[in-house]
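Course assignment 3, question 2. Fill in each field.
Student: A.L.
Task: Predict the tertiary structure for the chain below.
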Amino acid sequence: MDRLKQLWAAAPVATVILILSVGAAVVFGARATLFWIKRPPVAEREQAVAPWMTPRYVARSWGVPPAVIADAINAPRPPPDGPMSLRQLAEMRGIPTEQIIAETEAAIRDFRQGHRP
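Answer field:
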């Protein structure tokens, strides 16, 4: 307590800023820890492949390199007008959306089978 009185006597504004900074660090550190502990399990991150997803989104969701997905579905690199959904890629290739989803799922399955410990 004497140390706090010395700090206050020497620099009251700096002492207030220090106390607020330490408090904020504790609060945000606790929040970050809680979010990390309560993060969703892997099963929730591995979302079912849907037509609205982009190949990169699928790759990140399933923990597969984006190039694996892009190669499997013959996605243009770089896409002509920015990121394209699987539905847009299917339309561009002239195939049903279900086929491109099946190709994506097969690529994920093949990658995982080839990279098991």
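Instructor remarks: Helices lie at 2-10, 12-37, 42-45, 55-62, 66-72, 86-93, 97-114. The chain has two domains: 2-37, 42-114.
Grade: pending
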